[in-house]
Amino acid sequence: MTFTLERLAELTNSEFKGDGKCSLDGVASLGEASEGEISFVSNPKYKKLLASSKASVIILSSALAEDYIGNVLVNDDPYLTFAKIVSIFYEKTELTSSIHTRSTIDKSATLNKRVNIAANVVIDSDVIIEEGVTIGAGCFIGEGSILKKNVQLHPNVTLYKDTQIGANSIIHSGSVIGSDGFGYAPQKDKSWYKILQIGNVIIGSDVEIGASTTIDRAALGSTIIGNGVKLDNQIQIAHNVKIGEYSIIAGATNIAGSTEIGKACQIGGAVAISGHLQIADHVIITGRSMVMKSIKEAGVYSSGVATEENKKWRRNAARFRQLDEMAKTIKRLERKLEEREKGGLS
Amino acid sequence: MTFTLERLAELTNSEFKGDGKCSLDGVASLGEASEGEISFVSNPKYKKLLASSKASVIILSSALAEDYIGNVLVNDDPYLTFAKIVSIFYEKTELTSSIHTRSTIDKSATLNKRVNIAANVVIDSDVIIEEGVTIGAGCFIGEGSILKKNVQLHPNVTLYKDTQIGANSIIHSGSVIGSDGFGYAPQKDKSWYKILQIGNVIIGSDVEIGASTTIDRAALGSTIIGNGVKLDNQIQIAHNVKIGEYSIIAGATNIAGSTEIGKACQIGGAVAISGHLQIADHVIITGRSMVMKSIKEAGVYSSGVATEENKKWRRNAARFRQLDEMAKTIKRLERKLEEREKGGLS
Amino acid sequence: MTFTLERLAELTNSEFKGDGKCSLDGVASLGEASEGEISFVSNPKYKKLLASSKASVIILSSALAEDYIGNVLVNDDPYLTFAKIVSIFYEKTELTSSIHTRSTIDKSATLNKRVNIAANVVIDSDVIIEEGVTIGAGCFIGEGSILKKNVQLHPNVTLYKDTQIGANSIIHSGSVIGSDGFGYAPQKDKSWYKILQIGNVIIGSDVEIGASTTIDRAALGSTIIGNGVKLDNQIQIAHNVKIGEYSIIAGATNIAGSTEIGKACQIGGAVAISGHLQIADHVIITGRSMVMKSIKEAGVYSSGVATEENKKWRRNAARFRQLDEMAKTIKRLERKLEEREKGGLS
Fold this sequence. Notes:
3 copies of one chain form a homotrimer. By secondary structure, the first copy, chain A, is α/β, with parallel strands linked by helices.
């Protein structure tokens, strides 16, 4: 499919500079674009790369557009505009409907007529599948689960019973939603008595969940993922966690039981958050942080120390274990000096 | 199903206070319980919530029960008693038997008559499946594996060949047991020569393994998970690791090759434990710790520094790299002051 | 299968000492070997265990072989030689061919005659499968993917569309290759606009990928895993990452978007690497490190502080947050002392 610059400006509510009839057939990064492709610059530091790009059109803010001679799609949010243009070029919109003969669907399940169910899908009793849902090969949908309009499950996703997924949500392969929370009561003989996890998982609409992410069902009640939340790959979400709408969490982060994350939070990758905490709205937590206390105010929070050359690290890390001692010595020295000064001894 | 307070007291070897005929039909948390439900308070700090709870019965220790006027199930381990009552209400005990026509079972496999095998299960040659085993949709059971009585595999679990799983153990979806250990010998041309991993994984009885946990087969011999061990989601256990009975490990922890964890250890989430270490019995390791040396005595061990406001963190983290230098300066200052004192100079 | 010592020496280009006719039927570790088995010592510190081993033959360097009386396979790389002998004993080399009747293969896919496709495999349109490929039960191969000669997919692997896998590469169960990269443009209402990920994943030859590892497709272009790379379990590789040939990465490490890892790097387990970094060739990063800046020179890099007894840790970790203050105090004290000295006051 091809679009003219003029047409793309119209579709994205943008202005343009240069040849509006210029024909475009795809998108590419600034460095890899060739003729007929559209690219973008969002960060002014890449401005210097503009001259050498072979892209036929570049999406720029009006400020950056001023200095550039070539064809420009002008929009003050070039990144979002680029995202929309990628959708214009590549999003599939045809609604097909098919139920593979090798799927296994319980008689008590209710399926809309316009759904796509691939081979080896297993749908258990009393499941409800709404219009436009796509379920990839090998997915398992547990008893009583509800998949609202246009939900898309990539292949090999597992939903335990009673999972609810809101409209337009996407779940990537290998993810497991609704597995038992990790709850045991200790017994005198050191063995652990399993606490049956009788809650479920409720996922809002417009949520995306990456590959091999796990979300445990609640012990009692529900683990809740709010509308518009985006979760990356290999995230672990324990039972009874609640994540507020529009929060976004990068890969390999794990959140322990009953913690509540506010709205519109941004949490980096490989973060570990302890259980039973409250994280306020609009909190940003940088990658690899370790969160052990509730965070009550919006802001940026961090922990961790980055790599250094191994020999230096060995010395510094050894000193970490003397930190308390060092601090006390400093106080002692300070006091000594002060005493002398006071005493006019020096 | 409903139970009277009297009957629940009997079934859990507890006392009761109040109306023994009070009829109960489920459990709920203190805040969410409504009439007909039973809840519990284990931690005295939640005592103040008792007054406002709508639960018909509350499980309390005898100490807490004294001050409470409503119906009480009295037991000095309220948490364990609650766990048992959840089982009484919700545990399914019927033993069904069925082998789905869409399962693929090698002729050489030996299956007890009372087993449940779901659709799309593949059972390879010489597998042995004992009485009461349930295998969820899409599981793969490799050649020569043995599943003892009442083992339960949730959907989409993968067992490589020669895996052994003890009685009553549960494995959640997405977990992979018996994948090759990570072993290569370096070659002169920088390439890596794969060391075939010819061992296996042996899992004890009453073990529970969470979703998307991976346990590698041994290079030689066996990777061993002891009886009664509980593993959460997304744990990575490398080849030749041994975990002692009743140890419990929270989500996203990883244990490198050949490390041995003692009995009844409690290991938090997102912990990283190096290879070839020995961890003693009854060791507690808090979440996100980094364990680089063997731990020879029972006790609580920790590492890591928690989040702080980003600007402060930047300053402190930068200083970490000067720690060794700081320590040396402190020593120098100390010496100077001491010398002066000795010399009576001040 | 049995081999004589003489024959194994011949096959591995080694010398031998002792009874060349000694017959061997398997390998074992030094401590567990019994008669008829061959073992090895690579690290001189295990030399003392030689005397008590019941192995019939031991692989030793010429230096270690001097002091040992028993049968020896002499090679100056005992570890690599051991690896090769494991292959000699245990590697299956028969090439079978079969396509299970319960696999679902699109008509437009091109399959070589000599391939193994297990039950419940789904192969989408336009896939190309070359000679000697083995695909385990429940794998999904997305549209347009290419599996070159002798690729082996263990059960329950998911390949999204357009994935390319080089000859002789192995992927373990639960891994997901080609899932969408994590890319969204923020919108004014706090919602996130999904950036379609239109790139793919290209995996070189002789690569091994562990269980439950995830590799995202590129936003634009390709995520690239070089020839001979070895990835352990539960690794997360974000979109547009590039990993140079022969690099090796241990379990649970995660690499954020667009980072490029050089050739022959060795990265420990549970490492977190930020996005958009460049890591030079031959860099070694120890386990649990946090990499926040590009590394421009070969060498060993580390971060993190290991566990200590919980009470001590509490004190030291609390001091970490005073580090900047401590450093300033030290400087102040230093200045004071210097001033006095200069002033001849003391």
